[in-house]
Amino acid sequence: MDGALKATPLQTPPPIPEQQVALPQEIIVTAQGESTTTQPSPPEAPPPTPAESGEGNAESAIQAAWVKVRDHLRAVIGAAEYDSWLKRLGAGPFVDGELVLHLPSRFLCDWVRDKYGARIKALLAQEEGSIKRIAFKVTPRTKAARQAGKGTKKVDPQSDGAEDTLFPEVEQAPDLLATMGEGAFAAHRAGQDQPAHGPDDPGVMFDPRFTFDTFVVGRPNEVAYACARRVAESPATPGFNPLFLYGGVGLGKTHLMHAIGADLIERGKVSVSYMSAEKFMYRFIASIRSQSTMEFKRQLRSVDVLMIDDFQFLIGKDNTQEEFFHTFNALIDAGRQIVVSADKSPSDLSGLEDRLRTRLGCGMVADLHDPTFELRLSILVDKIKGREELVPAAVLEFLAHRIDGSVRELVGALNRLIAHAELVGRPVNLETAQHVLRDLLAAHERTTSIEEIQRRVAEHWNVRVTDMISSRRVRTVARPRQAAMYLAKQLTPYSLPDIGRAFGNRDHTTVMHAIKAVGTLMAKDAEFRESMEMLNRLLG
Ligand SMILES: Nc1ncnc2c1ncn2[C@@H]1O[C@H](COP(=O)(O)OP(=O)(O)OP(=O)(O)O)[C@@H](O)[C@H]1O
Predict the structure, then answer these.
(1) Predicted confidence (pLDDT) at residue 482 exceeds the cutoff of 60
(2) Which Gene Ontology molecular-function terms are recorded (predicted)?
(3) The domain containing residue 347 runs over which residues?
C-alpha cells in the first residue's frame, strides 16, 4: 500500500463454530492493580551447590569465577536480557574439570546452552583455568518455589514446564524435533532471540528498552507510532482493530508492539498476550500433542489484547492459519484488540488465505517506511545520549549517511563503536569508525546502476534521459553521454560492451573513446572536472 495509513470500517466476521484445537500463550500478563493474582513469583534460587557454597579452596575459586562471570554477563548483555535467560542459571558441582550449570527447564537449558554456552565457557576458562568443560543440566524447581509461584495469572514460557499448567508443552520441545523436523525446530529456536520477557516479573514482560519514550518518531514511522499509541490508550476502538503494522526488517515493528504491551499493562486492568507467529505455531502444535488444546484455546481467547509478531511466518502453514483465523474471529467478536505485525501489507502477503487477508486488513493498516537520513541521525543522537564523548557528531552523521535501511543495523553499528571506544579508552574518529565497521560498510556500499548514472548526468547538464541512448551527435548531448559512460566505467562493475549496450547499443570502442575524451577534458577544463567530481561523489 502506498499511503502509510488505511482505514476501513470494521467488518464483523460471521460467527465461527468452536474448533477442537486451542492455543497457548507466549506472554500473558494481567495488570489488575487490585488483584493479588499478578504478583510476581519470588526470584528463583538455584539449589545450593558445592561450587556456590564455597566449600574448600578449589570450590571457592570456582565460585569466585562463577560470580565474576555472572556479573560480567549481566554487564555485557544488560539486565533485561540477563534476567530473562540467565537469572536462574546455577553452577555446580565441579568434577574433573567439568562444571555443571543447571537451569529449571529443558527449554531454558537448551536455549541458554545454544545461545550463551560458548561465551560462558570461554569466560569461565579465562577466570579459572581448572574449568575445562561445562555441562548443562535440568534441575526442576523446588516444590516451595512452585507453591510460591501459584496463583499468578501470567504465563511464562521459561518457567518450569513440568507443572506449570499453562506451559506443559515447553518441556516437550525436544519431542517437537520429531514433529517439526530439525530445520524448523532450529528456526523456531532462532526465533526465540526476541527481546527479553522476564519470567517472574510482570514489569519486564515487555522489553523495558522498547517503549514509546525510546521510539524516535519521524516522517517514515509517525503514522505507525500514532496508531500504536492510540491502541495502547483505548484498545478495540472501531477502525483500529485489528491494527496491522508492517515494514521491512529492523524498522521498529517489534519495538512498537512491546511499547503497546508495556503501556497497556501500566494503565492496568487488561490482559495482554504477545508472541511471534512462529511461537504461535509451535505452541499450537505442542498443544495438539499434549491434548490440552481446549485449555489453551480458553486461555488465548480470554485475553483483552492479542499481539502476533512476524505474521509472515504463517505463510504456507495452513493449519496454523486456520487456527489463528478462528481465534481472530472469537476475539474480535468479543470486542478484544488484535495487533499483528508483518514484513508486508495484508494485500501483499501472498500465500495467506483470502478470508484471513481481508480480516487482517479490515481495521487499521500502517506501515513503517525505511528511515530517512534525518530519522537515522535522530535515532543515533538519541541512542548516544549521555555518552556523547565516545562517538562525536561527525561520526554519527557518517553512520547515518552510510548505513541506510534497517535501524537494527544502524544501532548495532553504533554499539560496536561505543564498545570499541570503551575498550581502547578513547573516542572513535572517522578513521577508526571506518576501520571498525569495514565489513558493514562494505555491505552497504552502494551499487550504482547505469540508469541512475544516466538520470543524474542528464539532470546535471539539463538534457533528456532519452538522449543518453539516442543517436544525436550534437556536442550538448554527446558530451554528457560520454561523461555518463565514463562514470559507468568508474562506478559499476559492467564491461565496456555492457556499457555500450546500455547507451543505445553502441560499440565498446565508442565507450573506450568516450572514456579517453572525458579524461582529456577533465585535465584541461576545471569546471568540467568539478562537475565530474561532484557527480562521482553523488553517485558513489
Ligand atoms: N524509531 C526507532 N526509534 C528507536 N529505536 C528504533 C526505532 N526503530 C527501530 N529501532 C530499534 O531497532 C531495532 C530493531 O527494531 P525491531 O526489532 O522493532 O524491528 P522489526 O521491524 O520488528 O524487525 P524484524 O522485521 O526483524 O522483526 C530495535 O533495537 C529497536 O529498538
Answers:
(1) yes
(2) ATP binding; DNA replication origin binding; lipid binding
(3) 5-37+150-165+196-368
Q: Give the residue among 70, 87, 85 at the shortest CA–CA distance from 158.
A: 85
Query: Tens of pLDDT along 506-523?
Result: 999 999 999 999 999 999
For residues 134 and 124, what is the distance between their CA atoms, to the nearest angstrom? 9
Ligand 1 mutation pick, 81, 223, 411, 414, max ligand atoms within 8 A of CB: 411
Residue 185, domain member (yes or no): no
- pLDDT above 50 for 479: yes
% the chain with pLDDT above 70: 76
Number of domains in the chain: 4
Listed in sequence order, the DSSP H helices in 425-474 are: 430-436, 438-443, 450-460
Q: How far is CA 271 from CA 25, 158, 279, 331, 518, in A?
A: 11, 19, 19, 13, 69
Q: Is 254 annotated as a binding residue?
A: yes
Least trusted range by pLDDT, from 8-12, 128-132, 518-522? 8-12
Q: At which of 425, 443, 461 does a domain end?
A: 443
Residue 407 lies in a domain: yes
Cβ 69 under 6 angstroms from ligand 1: no
Asked if ipTM goes beyond 0.95, one says: yes
Q: Which residues of 94-127 are buried (b: 16+ CB within 10 A; e: fewer)?
A: beeeebbbbbbbbbbbbbbbebbbeebbebbbeb
Q: Residues 301, 307, 309, CA angle at the centre, nearest 5°?
A: 135
Residue 155 per-residue DSSP state: B
Residue 320 lies in a domain: yes
- Using CA atoms, how far apart are residues 509 and 498, in angstroms rounded to an integer? 12
Show which of 337, 368, 399 is a domain's final residue.
368
Kindly report the CATH number assigned to the domain that includes residue 385.
1.10.8.60
- The verdict on 378 and 429 lying in the same domain is yes
Residues present in the chain in total: 540
Note whether 31 and 81 are same-domain residues.
no
Please check whether residues 31 and 157 belong to one and the same domain: yes
Q: Is the CB of 251 under 6 A from ligand 1?
A: yes
User: What's the first-to-final CA gap in the chain, in angstroms?
Assistant: 31
pLDDT in tens, 322-374: 999 999 999 999 999 999 999 999 998 888 889 999 999 999 999 999 899 99
